Amino acid sequence: MRTAFYISDGTAITSEVFGHALLSLFPIEFEHVTIPFVETVDKALEVKKQINLVSKQSGEKPFVFHTFVKPETREIIDSSDAVIYNFLEHFVSPVEQELGIPAKPKSHRTHSIHENSYDYRIDAVNFALANDDGSKVTDYEHADVILVGVSRSGKTPSSLYLALQYGIKAANYPFTDDDMDELKLPPFLAKHKKKLFGLTIDPERLHDIRDGRRANSKYSSLRQCRMEIREVEKLYKKERINYINTTAFSVEEISAKIIADAGLHRYKY
Amino acid sequence: MRTAFYISDGTAITSEVFGHALLSLFPIEFEHVTIPFVETVDKALEVKKQINLVSKQSGEKPFVFHTFVKPETREIIDSSDAVIYNFLEHFVSPVEQELGIPAKPKSHRTHSIHENSYDYRIDAVNFALANDDGSKVTDYEHADVILVGVSRSGKTPSSLYLALQYGIKAANYPFTDDDMDELKLPPFLAKHKKKLFGLTIDPERLHDIRDGRRANSKYSSLRQCRMEIREVEKLYKKERINYINTTAFSVEEISAKIIADAGLHRYKY
Fold first, then answer.
1. What is the mean pLDDT of residues B11-40?
2. What is the mean pLDDT of chain B?
């Protein structure tokens, strides 16, 4: 298997996202190796040795995706026995020309605490945890969005992702079996109807997920899953609540759709 | 302020990460606009209109970073009145030549549920929540890593980030004032000493953070913060527990350092 290295003097997240997006266009598997915080010449020489060893042992030049601020470490990696993709550098000149100013690279700017969005994110994580799964229903005036849906439809991971990635304060509230006889919005949700965003999921997928937690229970039965989904979707339509079916989507996709559909303000880019 | 658009038929996360990394090399501010899920010709035409309007009203061509799989939508965006950076495409040919096979673009491959790492991530999020803040100390044999540290040193956001981004099962356990008289590892931690990773933080920063939660308390006093940090750092050294000072680092940086220093296996790339 061909090896792909993602290397940086920072987190290497940018290299990873770019390299992964590029390699995912090809229908073959890669061995992925991420090496963050290559901040010294010694460390860079060590990494170069590692790359050269892989090249020698496999007989195939590894791919290297890197972002470096300091030239002295970058040049060492560039001299490795590998196919190097210095993808940022390629675009720097065109942007310099377009903006009419020179680039001013600075370490740790992309994923660092110095973004002023940082405190928002930690606050948002604390908010998501305190307002997870209906554990608190009295603080919804501070929520940016309130996710609603049945148990295991993706509310908690989506709330946490919105908080960690975007600094968005997302509460979430579950509709349970007890609510189903005559499903309606409780007053604390009705009061914030504009903030509600519904999640739904195919009953078969919900049944699979619930069965993994409580096999052969009423909770996990396909009959129960079908009934709950039918009821919440009816509610979403009746109350004109925006909603999405999460079955085929990842947490990234669900979050991106919620932000776009609800027109949420992001605190972080 | 110059506008930068991040556009895609998927989440637009790849465009954002790349564009943000590139623009962060320049010491000026941008207005950022992300438009995900541009999947139809109609939607693409609407976005083109939006770009052209910004260009006309501001008198400056916006920057557009995009990733598209389908040529019919991409071509519409490419024909906008903007500076277009089709950054993936530029690198496709060199990789095709290197690998000797053609690219096979497919929608929603980069950030989609179809990665087999997906279930790991949801499991890891559930694990992090169930094992947050010492709420459960009996399941550490299933943890990939156990973060330890004093209250507000960054344990919870780091655990959640490790889970959501990498599928790593991270528990976390707090050392509290009651533990400080004679700080040592409780048996349930000592048993899993190899999995422990310590967080520390500058006492002044800790004091600031705690004061935001409980002003003028013993808990938030600088004296108390200094004492707790002194004690946990002493413990880390005595027990030879890997640790990092989180003061100057973002959640991304803390997580990347933990993965690198503890040699953790990632379930997602």
1. 93
2. 93
Q: In this complex, do B132 and A129 lie within 8 Å of one another by their Cβ atoms?
A: yes
Q: Which of B113, B126, B152, B208 to mutate to test the interface with A (most CBs of A within 10 A)?
A: B113
* CB neighbour list of residue A52: distance below 8 Å, 6 or more residues apart: A80, A81
Q: Do A253 and B11 touch (CB under 8 A)?
A: yes
Task: Establish whether domains B2-99 and B118-262 are of one fold.
Answer: yes
How much is the pLDDT for A108? Answer: 63
Dist CA B105 CA B193 (whole Å): 45
Min Cα distance B43 → chain A (Å) is 13
Instruction: Give the tokens for residue A211.
Output: 């069965």
First-to-last CA distance in chain B? 35
- B182 CA: distance to closest CA in chain A (Å): 30
* Complex ipTM: 0.89
pLDDT of residue B242: 97
**A24 lies within 8 A of chain B by CB:** yes
Q: What percent of chain B has pLDDT over 70?
A: 95
User: Of B10, B99, B164, which has the smallest distance from its Cβ to A251's Cβ?
Assistant: B164
Contact (CB, 8 A) for B36 and A260: yes
The CATH class that applies to domain A2-99 reads alpha beta
Of A239, A257, A261, nearest in space to A154 by CA: A257
- Burial (CB < 10 A; 0-12, 13-18, 19+), residue A178, is exposed
Contact A11 B111 (CB under 8 A): no
Chain A residues with beta carbon closer than 8 angstroms to that of B7: none
- What is the value of pTM for the model shown? 0.90
Angstrom CA distances, A226 to A88, A147, A153, A205, stand at 49, 20, 13, 10
Output the average pLDDT for chain A. 93
Q: Does B25 touch chain A (CB under 8 A)?
A: yes
Q: Could you tell me the sign of the dihedral formed by the alpha carbons of A125, A129, A132, A138, in that order?
A: negative
Residue A38 has pLDDT above 60, yes or no: yes
What's the mean pLDDT in A205-229?
Answer: 95
pLDDT digits (tens, 9 = 90+) for A79-113: 999 999 988 888 999 999 999 999 987 766 666 66
Give domain limits for chain A: 2-99, 118-262
B5 conformational bin, left if phi > 0, alpha if psi -120 to 50, beta if neither: beta
The C-alpha of B209 sits at a distance from chain A's nearest C-alpha, in angstroms, of: 10
Amino acid identity, residue A251? V
B118-262: CATH topology is Rossmann fold (3.40.50)
